[in-house]
Structure formats: C-alpha cells, structure tokens
Please model this.
Amino acid sequence: QVQLVESGGGLVQPGGSLRLSCVVSGDVFNRFAMSWYRQAPGNEREMVARLDVVGGTHYSDSVKGRFTISRDSAKKAVNLQMNSLKVEDTAVYYCHVDQTSYWGQGTRVTVSS
Model:
C-alpha cells in the first residue's frame, strides 16, 4: 500500500526558510517522478517542483531559484527546501507520485510577518 506523509510546514517570516519532507511507503519510490504541489485558498492546485527518476528537476517560474527538490533514497523521502519565502508562497503543500492517484495529506505553510 502506498502512503505519502508530508511534514515540515509551519509559520515563517518573509525571507525565511522551511524544509518540507515527504516520506514514501510502498513500491513507487525511484519508479516514478515525484512532485510537490501547492494550493492557496481560492486557487487551483499548482505544481511547484518535479524530480524525475534520473534526477532531472523542473520548477515553476514562481519558485525557480528559491526552492530545491531532492531525493533521499536512504529515507525514501522527497524533500523541498524553500528559501527566501514570500507571503504569496502561503499554501498547503502536497506531495504527489506522478502518473498515479497517490497524494499526501498536505502540510500547511504560512509566510507572514
């Protein structure tokens, strides 16, 4: 059974940093690309970062240069390092296994002074 469990969200001031982690159980890690999405109140869910199985990365324009997605094979986790956070980064962040219906429960990030 596949489960994705996110952690690391919280409240941070503008300019601060957070590191999100998504621990993956089940036989999907290293077989599919992994992505982080976010959904702000009143907005559609949007992809912010993707990591493919050979290590290639893709970022949305809004986070490029500030966010970094990475894979920790020993922990079967996909991490999202978020630096220089802005108020507009406030959202619930979700981990997703691409090409499947597997999503995490989400972790809330609030950027506010």
Summary: Residues 48 and 61 are 8 Å apart (CA to CA). The two ends are 40 Å apart (CA to CA).
